[in-house]
Amino acid sequence: WILSLVQKLVLDVQEAMDRYDLQAAVQPFTVFVEQLTNWYIRRSRRRFWEAQDTPDRREAFSTLYCILMNLVKIAAPFIPFITEAIYQNLRMEHDPESVHLCDYPVYCEEMRDIELEKSMALVQQVVSLGHGLRKEHKVKVPQPLSTVTIISKNKDLLQTLQQQQVLILEELNVKGAEFTVEEE
Question: Residue 68 and residue 66: Cα distance in Å, rounded?
């Protein structure tokens, strides 16, 4: 999902820059960094903090490294000094000496999974609504709840959410989920 979003970032920034629309080129960074920090990194914390050097832990760090390297290359024309400082801390011996000597990332359609992106956006929307309800009723997230009921007339949407219910349950700290088209 996050690797797909990197490709979306490359495409969105590239298209805006091709139109010489600087504001439209910068806007996708905000959305991407929000997704990276408030969803991917937060959801992957356990993977990063594992005491053992497991394949899963290595994959998590490898993915994060790939994301950060792409991000600094995409952002380099906009924030040259910050991206150079970050790049210097990330670069390996075989990498160019400067982020400004790197090739600009090229959009790779094969790495995009638009359906997965939509699915995660739906999950995030449900989680946000759930957190809003918890806040409204003054029930803090650390307090587990027995069930959450997710209602939509759209059966395809419900099916997508059912496939991702583990994420919803973990994020909302709920033991079970009910999915229904019955709005009443």
Answer: 6
